[in-house]
Amino acid sequence: MTSRSRARPAAGGGGHDGGIRKRGGAARTDRDGDMDMDGNGRAARSNRAGNSRPTSNRQQGRNKKADVIQRALGDARGSSQASVRSGKGAPASNLVDVAITGWQKSKSSAARDRTVDDLRSFLERRVSSQTKGPNIKIHKSRVEGDAFIVSLRPDLVERIRKLNGSLFAGNYITVEELNTTDTALDAELSNNGTSAETMDTKSKLATILSKRYYPDTKLLDMSKLSSDPDLQALGVFNSTSTQSKFFPALMKVWDMQFTTASEKHAAVESVSLASNQLTNIAAVTSLAQTIPNLKNLDLSNNNLADYKSVTGWRWKFRNLQFLDMNGNPLSSDPNFKDTLLKWYPNLQYLNNVQVRTPEEVAAQKKAPIPNQPPIFEDQGSIGEHFIRAFFPSYDNDRNELIDGVYDSNSTFSLNVNTRAPDSPTVKMITQLPARMSRTFKGVEKIRQLWNDLPQTRHPDLNTQADEYLIECHPIHNLPDPTGQNAHGVSGLQIMVHGKFEESVNGKIELRSFDRTFVLGPGSGAGGIRVVNDLLCLRAYGGHEAWSPENESIPQALQPPVGAIAPAAAPVTAPIAAPAVPAASTTLPEGYGVATPGKPETQVQQEQMVIQMSNKSRMTLQFSEMALSSNAWNLEAAWNNFEQLKAQGTLPADAFLP
Amino acid sequence: MAPPTEDQLTKVSTEAATNFVRTFYPALQSNRDSISSFYSETPAKILFNGNTVADGKAVQDIFTNQMPVSYYEVQSFDCQIINRSYPTPTPTGPKQPDQRTVKDMSILVVVSGSVRYGDRDPAKPQRGFSETFVLVPNATGGDHGKGRRSEYLIEDQNFRLVV
Q1: With contact defined as beta carbons under 8 Å apart, do A404 and A17 qualify?
Q2: Would you call A477 and B83 a contact, using CB atoms and an 8 Å cutoff?
Q3: What is the DSSP letter of A359?
């Protein structure tokens, strides 16, 4: 197994060294034995290289463990979640195709094959020689007409382009990057077709789509495809191979007609796939990627017989309101209605019968206790730095993570909620399930288990923050590793809800997880240690549960209450909230920025004003008034603003031009 | 007194977590008058979906007055010892290290399950939740009727709907 990128995880912002590395030196605590929250005194400590263990022989144990989890989750869910991303290394879809032309001389095929081999080695040699490091191999290439097409990692494209105009076997070669969308289409429709044929196919598919699209009703009618004379003429139904490639290609062509995502989303509300003899949605599953926010879907008069045949869309189409499956055997299943109601929380009409009123849809979304943004109380950003560095490290180098912040008293445990979220069984809560967990204490035991667990990929916290819900607050009376404080020390409790992909026997599985950490002061990176790390895996359940019912201002930005602000603490955006949008108003010089002599509270207040202004579109002056009249409580100020706005009592000049 | 063994500690924590889960969720469902007795006098933090609640009494008020009947299903739970030598509060102040027994520990409990609000019909949609607790020893009071008394009380609670 080769290890993936070993890039040191970067902590977000603030100039903190948030990388997770073990550090020498004794635990640093403040006078009360609490966590070192100001991040000072760091420079004196020396780094020690991570103590990496050899990584061989891990796969076997890993698969065993993975199997158990796989079975536990897989059985509950019926079938595995399809994923677009491949497990290890660069996904194939990330490769860039580059066409080399002008090289061909010989007409005989034997000579041509030899020439292709020569050309490949020529390119490998020349690309490799441009930098030091391992030689570059071209693993994927093909000949199309006059072009030799190589698929390369994106970082190598620039290097091969430099070979444009080079002399190869007496000919000057031309090197051009292929348009990626064309290539994707090409790959999907490739039956030794040349680029010209592909372009032709593309325009034919576009014509077919235009005949089947009704902009007035926002309907894309893809019913009875096999009896479409244009498609028959294209020969897409001549072989199973072209048939399976045809629909994704059709979707790709549809995609290409739009320049923006919002334009694309606005174009279609309804899709018909009626009367297509579908026995499984596998052939058309890409619809869910192309038109994810579909409202009406007609699948009538196909041959869908069981839930398995449609399970690929189980977690898709979260906005589906109307579904017609008349004329499919599945419609007569006794649990049909109940199951589909659970699958699609917004569904109102099933097989042309109303199954839910709009009021019921609204009511079921409302939890008796309203959903509020995450609470993130994190003095000195210790929790934020920890969590930003944690998941990239866990995905890429668990050994380094263990050596960095776990110690002989750290505890890790893993349990699996094997119940599917929509399991029909009602179980009395007095019958508790067996605790399917084991506890691992100390660096070596945790290391052993982690090396056996499948490789994971968590969403990027910087770009996919909405897929996480992260909360953090102080916790007291933690064990004191130095033994100096009889009543223990203080630290942080962090609760993370999210998802990750893991690679199980070559298949990518999507999981949801809940992970609770207790962090205390210690000798690890950033002056912390992991006291507890408790991971619960469950079947994938999306992240819409915590999307705020109405967008509100993250409470994490509220000024600290009853706590002493650490001196010169870096003010960073809370991780649990989307990144702060760039200020669209011109800020006075130095506004919201810590400068010598400026009190910390002023910096924080200015930053809150910027936040408020960005969100409300009010001027800085009015934003400041709103905040100061609400005791600098962002949430209160926001509510107040919404109230005034609704009443129409805000003057026009309160808003940015 | 000899320090407790790992096995003893695991047994105490697992039993405490199991008893807690087994009594707390039924109380939320059908014994709401007893809810406050599950909480320590001054809990550090209580959060429900990002809403801060002051104490056990406030939680009980919310459940008795605002919450529809709720059907909880605990699907898995797990626990870990946080501090095996916890300064359990007593009327005369926190226990000193030499006064502590195997039971003086704080415990992290995480529960994963589902809840259905207001309707017993199993076909109605249920929501998935994740709930994290910190339990601490009950040295002083807390009695949820019928002479039963929790050995451990909620010091910290964070409930979130996650599905």
Answers
A1: no
A2: yes
A3: H
Amino acid at A232: Q
Tell me the per-residue pLDDT of A66-123, one tens digit each, with 9 for 90 and over.
554 445 443 333 333 322 222 333 334 577 788 888 877 555 666 677 788 888 999 9
The mean pLDDT of A600-616, rounded to a whole number, is: 76
pLDDT value of residue A54: 40
Q: Average the pLDDT over B96-115 and give the result.
A: 94
A300-A306-A312 Cα angle (round to 5): 80
- What would you report as the CA-atom Rg of chain A, rounded to the nearest whole angstrom? 29
Q: What mean pLDDT value characterizes chain A? A: 74
Q: Which residues of B touch A493 (CB under 8 A)?
A: 132, 134, 156, 158
Q: Up-side HSE of residue A123: CA atoms within 13 Å toward CB?
A: 31
- Residue B139 confidence (pLDDT) above 70: yes
Coil, helix or strand at residue B47: strand
Cross-chain CB nearest to A364 (options B10, B77, B125): B125
CB A511 within 8 Å of CB A391: no
ipTM value: 0.95
For CA atoms A156, A157, A162, A167, the dihedral sign is positive
Question: Which pairs count as long-range contacts for B140-144, CB under 8 Å and 24+ apart, including other chains?
Answer: B140/B41, B140/B89, B140/B90, B140/B91, B141/B41, B142/B37, B142/B38, B142/B39, B142/B40, B143/B37, B144/B23, B144/B27, B144/B31, B144/B34, B144/B37, B144/B38
Q: Do A512 and B163 touch (CB under 8 A)?
A: yes
- Per-residue pLDDT tens for A295-322? 999 999 999 999 989 988 887 887 899 9
pLDDT digits (tens, 9 = 90+) for A275-300: 998 998 988 888 988 888 899 999 99
Sorting pLDDT into bands at 50, 70 and 90, what band is A589?
Answer: low
Chain A residues whose beta carbon lies within 8 Å of the beta carbon of residue B124: 364
- Give the mean model confidence (pLDDT) for residues A506-527: 91
Q: Write out residues 341-360 of A within 8 Å (CB-CB) of B.
A: 341-342, 345
- A425 to chain B, closest Cα gap in Å: 8
Q: Hey, are the CB atoms on A486 and B113 less than 8 Å from each other? A: no
Orientation of helix A180-189 relative to helix A240-256, angle to 10°:
160
A415 and B72 within 8 Å at the Cβ level: the answer is no
* pLDDT tens string A116-132: 888 899 999 888 888 77
Beta-strand relationship, B51-52 and B45-48: antiparallel
Judging by beta carbons within 10 Å of its beta carbon (0-12, 13-18, 19+), is residue A580 exposed, middle or buried?
middle
Helix, coil or strand: residue A62: helix
- Residue A380, pLDDT score: 84
Which of B10, B83, B110 comes nearest A479 by C-beta? B83
Q: What is the DSSP string of A613-643?
A: HHHH-B-HHHHHHHHHTTTT-HHHHHHHHHH
User: Is B77–A424 a contact, with Cβ atoms under 8 angstroms apart?
Assistant: no
A487 touches chain B (CB under 8 A): yes
* Cα of B140 to nearest chain A Cα, Å: 18
CA distances to A105, A488, A493 from A171, in Å: 8, 77, 66
Chain B nearest-CA distance from A512, in A, is 9
Mean pLDDT of A447-466: 92
Q: What is the pTM for the complete model shown? A: 0.54
- A–B interface: beta-carbon pairs under 8 A: 182
Q: Residue A261 has which token pair?
A: 């995502």
Question: What does DSSP say about strands A411-417 and A528-539: parallel, antiparallel, or unpaired?
Answer: parallel
- Residues shown for chain B: 163
pLDDT above 50: residue B20? yes
Contact B161 A545 (CB under 8 A): yes
Residue A27 in this model has a pLDDT that exceeds 80: no
Nearest to A473 among B45, B94, B114 (CB): B45
CB within 8 Å of chain B, chain A residues 465-484 = 469, 471, 473-479
Cβ-defined contact of A417 to B75 (cutoff 8 Å): yes
